[in-house]
């Protein structure tokens, strides 16, 4: 079924991808959130389905955590995670839909008589990084200088998206003591095209909002047990009520939540902007924000209306070998022109020429370098087909003088491969524009750490993850006594805070 499905489009074909029974994705389909017809049996689709299933389970973890939170900061972190998971799920679903529509259009527009590959040339992909994000605030004089009035505080973070890649910044608490909101850590998107659109969304939640949190172990236990499901909930209730043992049940199945509508803090879109290739520059730039709130909103912050950041891009053609192989180069040795065999590497704005292949691998200084940029002219010539001389000329202008280098390929097929690599390289440079002038530096982001509030003793994570029996305390929240339930939540929270995307 897979090979046939990949070669032709058949309406109502039986070879649809199988969504795992009782998976989180299957539950979303049953709830009517998504149509099963969206899913087509291709490796790319299957990969995205796995990502959706992962995010749905992460969302369930955030819901459970939110229902169990007894501290405001914990609830804000959980609500933030819930928003991020929902955004990723929607992005993956949109990508699945787009891929399916592209498949259908391809089958509809290509007739059986159409033979051969599509002639559309695609630009290389690349990495895009945004760092040193700063958002200036504009407090009223009475609020900032005279320090009068009630202290208005908000929890704030940024959501950044390129295609299906979505990342979030850390959450920061903002009040009138801050004149700028700073997010120092950089975020790198690894699969961007030159037509990328980087969406920046700023979310805020007013700390004065009256969102309900669990205040007592009984209330918390009720929330947890209803979230955990029937069998786990019974065990939890029996433990908390001081029963002699936990009821055993063979039923229950996977722990799944209904579509999230849990009480707790809610983040609101405060402002947004969209950046693209024209905004890329290896320096700090200011970008306008579109503000979506006003002073009457509880989550409002006095944004100046702009943000500053460093947006850089690294096309693949600038940092990876795009072509490598042997070419003969004409060099003047004494009074004679000799052809010297060189190992040449096309990367970035240079053709690096080494005397041996090993020198390229060990990053030894090349014997010769030829500039390859937007102004370079390259031409293939075959002056003497009988002698099988396949040459390529590379011409650059230095000041007012033109300099031409002649190179010989070892075969006609070799020459064609080099010429195709040059044409692709020129096309990549034409699409990525200023990003190909010189290689922009991208700092490696520092490893993500769980929120600091989770490392404090007495936090919900430690209360739930501590092994062995413990006694519930009305002041510190819930200390789980049932090892089975504790292991369930411990695994959930551990994956929730340590999982990488």
N-to-C SSE series? Answer: HHHHEHEEEEEEHHEEEEHEEEHEEEEHHH
C-alpha geometry: elongated
Number of strands: 18
Strand content: 25-35%
- Sheet with the most strands, sense and barrel status: 7 strands, antiparallel
Helix content: 25-40%
Contiguous helical run count: 12
Lay out the secondary structure.
Elements: H1 2-7, H2 24-30, H3 43-68, H4 72-109, E1 126-136, H5 141-144, E2 154-162, E3 165-168, E4 172-174, E5 180-183, E6 187-192, E7 198-206, H6 217-228, H7 230-240, E8 268-275, E9 284-288, E10 290-291, E11 306-315, H8 316-319, E12 323-333, E13 336-347, E14 350-354, H9 357-361, E15 368-371, E16 377-381, E17 390-398, E18 401-409, H10 412-432, H11 460-465, H12 483-498
Helix pairs in contact: 3-4, 3-6, 6-7
Give an overview of the whole structure:
The chain has a seven-stranded antiparallel sheet with strand order 15-14-13-12-18-17-16. Strands 2, 3, 4, 7, 8 and 10 form a six-stranded antiparallel sheet that branches. The protein is elongated, with a radius of gyration of 30 Å. The chain is 31% helix and 25% strand. It is built from twelve helices and 18 strands. With 501 residues, it is α+β, with helices and mostly antiparallel strands. The protein starts with a helix and ends with a helix. Mean pLDDT is 75; it is low at 1-18, 112-118, 214-221, 223-229, 235-260, 451-490 and 496-501. A hairpin with a 2-residue loop joins strand 13 and strand 14. Helix 3 packs antiparallel against helix 4, helix 3 (43-68) packs antiparallel against helix 6 and helix 6 (217-228) runs antiparallel to helix 7 (230-240).
